[in-house]
Every structure is written in C-alpha cells, then in structure tokens.
Here is the input.
Amino acid sequence: MSDLITTDLVRLQASWGADKRDAIAGMVGVLGDAGRATDADQLLADVYAREDTSATGLPGGIAIPHCRTTGVEEPTLAFARLDPPVDFGAKDGPADLAFLIAAPAGGDATHLQLLTQLARSLVKPEFTQALRGATDADEVVALVNEALGVTPATAPAATATAAAGTAAPAAAAAPTEPAQPAGSTDHPSLVAVTACPTGIAHTYMAAEALEAAAERAGVEIAVETQGSAGATPLAHDTIARAGAVIFAVDVGVRDRGRFAGKPMVTSGVKRPIDDADAMIVEALRYAADPATAPRVEGEAADAEGTGGEESWGARTRRVLMTGVSYMIPFVAAGGLLIAISFLLGGYEIANHAGAVLADSTLFNPPDLAAYADPGLDHVLFGSAEMAYLGAALFVLGKVAFAFFVPALAGYIAYAIADRPGIAPGFVMGGLVTDISGFGVPQSGFLGAIVGGVLAGLIAHWIAGWKMPTWARGLMPVLIIPLLTTVIAGLVMIVLLGQPIAWLMEQLTDGLNSMSGESAVVLGVILGLMMAFDMGGPLNKVAYSFAAAGVGGAALASDAPELKIMAAVMLAGMVPPIALALATVLRPGLFSIPERENGKAGWALGASFITEGAIPFAAADPLRVIPGIMLGSAVTGGLSMAMDVGVRAPHGGIFVLFAVDNVLGYLIALAVGTVVGAVAVIGLKSLGQSDADVATV
Here is the structure.
C-alpha cells in the first residue's frame, strides 16, 4: 500500500474559487494528477453525493470532504490550504484548511477511522496553527503523519490499526501514552442520553444524528432516548464499558446517577442535530484524557443536575423545561378526552357528567329528557349511549387534566432534588389548585412553578445534611419528603399563596378584558414565540400559557382562553406546513434531503408538531426562522381577529370537532402558511438562484 499522504497530494496555495464544489473538484484533480484516482469522475461524483448528505465543514476553518468510492483502489488523503477560503457549511464561517479522504468502496471503514483520528488533531489549535504556518509540502506531510500516528514506512500497519478501532491512535489524543496494538478491541465506546420537553421530535432526531455521526467515525455508541414513547434504559454493563457520556437534553436526565464518574459532554438537544460530529470528537477526546474532562458527579450533583459546568441560566431553563415535559402528557390526554366527550355528549355534558354516571350505566343508559338547564340537546345522534360514553370520557379527561399543575410542580422539584423532591412538589401543586377543597388560594401554574422550585430547593438542602448511618436509609423516603412538605407548605400557605393568587387573578381579568386590537397583538406575539425556537423554551412558554386555561374554559364559546389556545395551536402548525409548501413551489431552493423533509412536514404540521421545521432552520437559520415567524405571527393575529376557539390543547387539524369557527380556523392556517412559504422563498432567493442551491 502506498503512503496515505505524500507531497504530491499537498497544495499550499489552492485558488479554486469560493464554491465548495469547485474546491472539491480541485482536490479530486490533485488525486488524479498524483495517479491515485483510477476513475476521477466517479470519485468526484461520490464526494459530491457525500457532501450533499451532510456538510463536512468543522469549526475553526476546517473541512473534511470524504467518501468511499470505486474511483480509488487504496486509501488516500489530500490536503489543501484554500485561498480564498471556501464555505463548507460550518457555522463559524468558511474553511481555509481542507482534507480530502478517499477510501476504496470494497474496503473497510478506513476513511471513517481516519476521519476520527484526523478530527481529534484538528480540535487542537497547535496542530491547525502548524498547518497554516507550514512552509512546504514535506512539512505538511510530516505534521499529518505525526497526527495520525503513522510514518510512511508504517502506513499499512497504521491502517490496519485504524480499522480495528478508533482508540488505536492514542498517541494522537494523548502523545504521552502508547498507542493500542493493532487489532485491539479495547477501544472506547460512548453512551448518550437525548431528551426534549415534548419527547416527540428533538429527542429522536438528536439520537439519529449522534448515531449517524458515531457510525461515520467508526465509534460504538448506545443512545437512550428519554422521549414520549418511553425509554429503554441503557444496560449497566454498557454504561460501565463506555469511555464517556453525552447528555443532549433540555430537561433533567432520568436516573443521572447511573453515569456518576464518567467524562461528560453536555448540550441542549439541538446541538447534535447541528453538530453531532464535533460532539463525538469531543467525547472521544475526554475518553482518551479523562483528567481534563468534566465528570458526571455523584448523588448530590445528580440531585442538582449541575454536571460540573452548567450555568445558572442553563440550570433554570432545564428545571422549568423538565416540569413542562412531564406536564404535557396530562394536558394533552386530559384535553383531548374532554374534547371527545363534547363530540359524543355535546358541550352540556359537562354539567351532568357526574349525575349521568351515578344514575345509569352503558347498558341502562340515561333518559336524556331528565336532564335540563341546560338540557342534553347536542348528544351525537341523540343517542343515550353516546351521552353515557361522553360523560365517562369527560370525567376521565377532567381527572387527567387536574393533575397537570401538580405534575408541573412535582417534576420541577424532581429536576432540582431528584426523587425525594417529587412528593413535596406534587403536594405544592395540589395546594395551589386546592384539590383539598378547603379554600386555599388558587394560584395555578404560576403557583406551581414557585411551589415546585421551593420544594426542590428545600429538599436539596435537606439532602445535604450530615446524618447518622442509621438515618441515611430513611432520608429519601421519609425525612426529606416530610420536612420539605411541612416547610414548603407553610411558606406557600402563610406567605406566598395570597400574592401569587392575586397575580393570577389579575392575569385572568386582563385576558377576559382583551378584545379588538389588543387580542390581535397578543395573537401575533404568541405566533412569534411558537415559531422562534420550534419546540424550545419560548415555544413551550406560549404553549403552557395557553393550555393552562383550556380546562376551566370548556363551555363558554367566547372564553378568551379558548381563543388563545387556538392562536397557539395554529401558529405552531404553520412552520412545518409552510416549509413543505415552499419545497413544492421552489424545489430548486432546497437540497434533496430538505425536499424529503418537506414531505414529512405536511403531516407533522397538521398534527401540531412544530419540530418538523427544525431540519430547515438548522441548515439555514437566518433565512428560514424569520420567514416562518412572519407566517406564524400572521396566523396568530388572524385567529384572534376571527374569534377562533379550540377546546383541545393538542391535535392540530384532527380536532376540528372541538373548534369554534372552523372556517376561520382553516383561513388563518392557510393564510399564515402561504405567507410563511413566500417569505422563506423570498429570503432564500436573496443572492442565490435555484441552480446555486441545487449544486450544494
């Protein structure tokens, strides 16, 4: 086998223009001139195809286009210093250093292993600075071979080592340590946890991105998705074997203590969608040199969820988003059950549900004429059986909905203090909704946030007490929940209950008084919030604000809470549908993967899953996000202007039966979708044509 890189594969002043396809063509030409490409056209096509799948730009002015191809017969590495720099899709700007890695199609995953080894060195400023300062091709070849842990004389052995496992080039990650012997299987694996507030889209998209990046790097990774479909916990042996853990989460990690002591990479759930390759490289670097890595700490840190480097802002966001994450299933299930009960039994069933269930059964259905003021005049098909089923579903829905405030408080406390915080947090949530019936001031979701934080902080404080050995086993199940409930409960009843209840009353009165222009402005603001981060904190604040009012406003068709819910739901549906429409109207402005995502966007948007817009926003945030924000703002304002209301907190187009003013609902959605699509097309058309994008 020839050397991986030689001087005739190096260009120090490569002037191929500012387009990455021209730069790739230039580097392929270098391989052809050096006699390393048996079919240059096929090699070029395969590199382009790989680049179209996922951009290969890395932070720090670096690009690594690569492929497996029939156009070469042996692994080859070319290097170029680009002048002018070329945009390869990295967020921090164009690349002035480029490596082209080509591996035989019939061979092993050598080029992926080389990519991992090379990326490890590229994150070191001294290596990239040396490449930028190299005066000749010989110096570049020496630097690269040193980084790969090979010399021209040992290239075959090094390649075999790379195929055996990514930990082999230990010298590249930690020069003071010897490299693993060829064929060693004792290489670091990784584990990861992904979790987003709703657990619908981000969680699984992040997991797929990490798995794909690990596959590209030839690294074994096991990902635990803590999403709405539940989670299959990672096996103990898998965690123990891992060299590092990646937490890509916007909420608390369940059972975080399982990972105590592991080197750790942390981020929000969006980062791997944008930059999974860099996260894999960072995790491998920490696995190779644990002394420099932040660690998952023990029980105290686990309860706090700090992870060593978490800022106060990030901690606050995580705590609140954890509460929202666990709250949403109660809201969605309860709200949809109530909406279906209205479909079956009419809106009047809310006044008689208890009596219907007490006085009749499904096989001995109620006499509809016996119920008046209001009467059961809107039962589906006038059927007594439908009335009974409607009453049953209404009760189930109200019970489920009643738990959403306690769940919000309970899991906020859990995010701060782990399991010992759950019980007192739930008690605080029940307290502010007065489930006891003793007339305690009701402060709703604001009280739940305050009560949950208070319970979590107190529980975490008590957990830090030094206790005798005999009492330690009682701490999490008795002492912490008991003392926390007493202290936090008294503070809420004596000091905070009345002020927060007054604030909620003022907020409710303000909503009830909104009409005309002020209501339209509110709809516009809610629309902007729903589209700005597509499932992130602002989106969830707007959604929680709307959902909190749905349960108590199920009857009055003119209730402002129902109008707010409609504006939020419609505005959240617009981004994926608008982008799907844009891919149909101007497909040339979008890459092939984006056009495929557009096909899914129709269904995701119709189902009120705003996260369907994320792939587009991640690829082109400055053009996509303003466009969809405009569309959502228009929809939110129109929804308010036309007095659209919806009694279901989720479901999108599939809960039209729960909509007041269905025509207005559809008009607001259609107009906002068209505006959003046109805005995105207009912004993406600035400075580029369809042909330009089609070649990217």
Summary: The radius of gyration is 29 Å.
